[in-house]
Amino acid sequence: MKKHIFSLLVILLFSIVGIKALFHPGLFSAHDIWHQVARFYHYQQALNDGQFPPRWGGTMAHGFGYPLFLFSYHLPWVLGTPVYKITESVPFTIKSLFVISYVASGFFMYQFGWELFKNRVASLLATILYLWAPYRFVTILVSASVGTAFVFTFLPLLLWGILKTARDNSRFARATVALSLSCIILSHAMTVPFIWPLVLLFALFIIRKNPKSAWSVSWSITLGIALAAFYLLPALYYSRFTQIATGAFAHIYQQNFVNLHQLVYSKWGYGIAQNAKDGAFSYQVGIAQWLAFAAFIGILFSKRMTSLSKTLAWCFTFVLLGSIFAMLEFSRPIWDALTGFITLDYPTGFLLPAVFSGSILAGFAHSSLSSRNWQTLFFIPMVVIVLYTNRNHLRVNEYTNFPTSLYVESEPTTNSYDEYLPKGVNLPQTGAQANFIAHPDVKVFNVKQNTKELSFLADIPQDAQISVRQFAFPGVNLYVDGTPARYDKDSLGRVRFAARAGEHNIEVRFEETPLMVFSKFVSLTALTLIALTFFIKNEKKT
Questions:
Q1: Other C-beta atoms lying within 10 Å of the C-beta of residue 449
Q2: In angstroms, rounded to a whole number, what is the distance separating the alpha carbons of residues 506 and 486?
Q3: Which of 141, 173, 172, 104 is nearest to 30 (CA)?
Q4: CB 394, CB 18: distance < 8 Å
Q5: Strand partners, 485
Q6: Which residue from 20, 24, 43, 175 has the highest number of Cβ atoms inside 10 Å of its Cβ?
């Protein structure tokens, strides 16, 4: 550990300078910052109401309910909960999450680089490029995408685990693969299709050199998916009941291909555009990453590179080139075919594996040079280029100091396209319906509502079809006078039932479905297997 202290201090310094804009009171303007504040607020409300994990936002969508956390990420909000409990500040917690994810990504990248190169300076160079890539600053300071920020954190740790599993098959490495993969899924599942080619290709290249490790790597990846099953299985199954595959969100990819010159260099900006080619903000891979790629190609056939190094370097080269292709209009026929089976959003999501691969190629290029003098001559200019070309990317557009309540009130679903609304629901139309009961003659008393339950007393003068202000969705159940009651949905998607005259206690509760319960069992089983593995190991030692 001592021999790495200087490198880790340098990484910490670059991290602090890179995100110095966050060390400022209040929040800042960014694409998703309003979403993030409202999501974290609703997540905390759901936890306080006894939902674990949170799934249903009963007070969202103008009080009609919204299944946000069936589909949106969990891990950042779980990690932010202790910070919020201590500080009671949503803005501070949001900024803390970005700081934690950014700094940790640097340490994990260095760890992976060391395992890959066995060269401290090469690992440090790859880490600096990874931390100071333009897309990192876009993710945090322009888009405020906290989920993507944590994918950057756990990706190098996942690849480190795969590499260590293949080399020495240690139990710690296998557990790292499982835990880091589940963390990626729980950070931003929509990003997984973009990094999956990198993960699979890297695993295949590693296994090719050590076929005996195939079972261990495969089992660890399977365990990682199982760990996230409590979220993943319901999200995959219940998405068919939402508008994500049929609304505007399903076609969002069509306007978000970029031109090649935008990936090489594009002006910095903080705007939002309907078409990515309009250049509202930058889609650069990074000047340093491009130079690292060029340098690596120039010394690819160096005799100093081992067979394994060349194999892995080719892996990252393929990923970089494939990611570039996937972001260009030429790849649209492939996207058209894939989106018939799965929902994908922005092609520029491939910037993440492109940035990662370009940064790693810088480490390969450095470690392949024939002498320390050449390595120094490569390292110093690369760092200077990183600092110079990103010097204007370290600031936010504008600092803000709005109350949390304004963020929450302005974000009925926290999704720009309201894509998780039940099918057939129109949010503006239903938002105008303020009554808890959609019937002019019914009087309502003792209304109580939280994230998982709406209850009230209703005085119903005559038998009638009654609609309650909660959307019908799997897991939403109706109780009349404490007894389960059947319901259908009205033309607005609300819970509707046949009510008898009289005074009744009406409850609409969200309760986990059998699939949700089963998915939690799968995750607990996977977690138990990991814990049991270490327990058995310790038993053998004693």
A1: 17
A2: 12
A3: 141
A4: yes
A5: 478
A6: 43
Kindly state the tokens that stand for 279: 């250049």
Calculated CA dihedral for residues 241, 246, 252, 254, nearest 10 degrees: 140
CA-based nearest residue to 509, from 63, 67, 70, 58: 58
Contact indicator for 162, 206 with CB cutoff of 8 Å: yes
If you search the block for the tokens 């910052």, which residue do you land on?
Answer: 33
Give the three-state DSSP class for 326: helix
* Separation between Cα atoms, residue 456 and residue 481, nearest integer Å: 10
Decide: residue 360, CB within 10 A, 0-12 exposed, 13-18 middle, 19+ buried: buried
Considering only CA atoms, which of 280, 282, 407, 391 is closest in space to residue 26? 407
Helices 351-367 & 120-131 angle (0-180, nearest 10): 150
Query: Alpha-carbon Rg of the chain, whole angstroms?
Result: 25
Place of tokens 């109580």: 448
Tokens of 316: 């990252």
Helix (H) or strand (E) holding 59: none
| Cα–Cα distance, 487 to 497 (Å, whole number) | 5
Write b or e for each residue in 219-249: b if 16 or more Cβ atoms lie within 10 A of its Cβ, otherwise e.
ebbebbbbbbbbbbbbbeebbebbbbeebeb
469 closest CA partner among 498, 502, 514, 506? 506
Structure tokens that stand for 330 in this block:
């030429």
- 399 bridge partner residues: 28
d(CA 469, CA 425): 13
Rounded to whole angstroms, the Cα distance separating 290 from 263 reads: 10
Residue identified by tokens 């138990």 is 528
∠ CA 287-320-366, rounded to 5°: 60
d(CA 477, CA 508): 6
Euclidean distance between CA atoms 425 and 251, whole angstroms: 19
DSSP code at position 347 = G
Q: How far apart are CA 15 and CA 315, in angstroms?
A: 28
Q: What residue ranges in 381-538 does DSSP mark as E strands?
A: 399-400, 443-449, 453-460, 464-471, 476-480, 483-485, 488-489, 494-499, 502-510
pTM: 0.95
The pLDDT profile of the chain, 542 residues, written as one tens digit per residue, is 778 999 999 999 999 999 999 999 999 999 999 999 999 999 999 999 999 999 999 999 999 999 999 999 999 999 999 999 999 999 999 999 999 999 999 999 999 999 999 999 999 999 999 999 999 999 999 999 999 999 999 999 999 999 999 999 889 999 999 999 999 999 999 999 999 999 999 999 999 878 888 999 999 999 999 999 999 999 999 999 999 878 778 788 999 999 999 999 999 999 988 899 998 999 999 999 999 999 888 877 655 666 667 788 889 999 999 999 999 999 999 999 988 788 888 999 999 999 999 999 999 999 888 788 888 999 999 999 999 999 999 999 999 999 999 999 999 999 988 999 999 888 766 665 567 787 788 899 999 999 999 999 999 999 999 999 999 999 999 999 999 999 999 988 999 999 999 999 999 999 999 999 999 999 999 999 988 876 665 443 33
Six token digits for residue 353: 């594996």
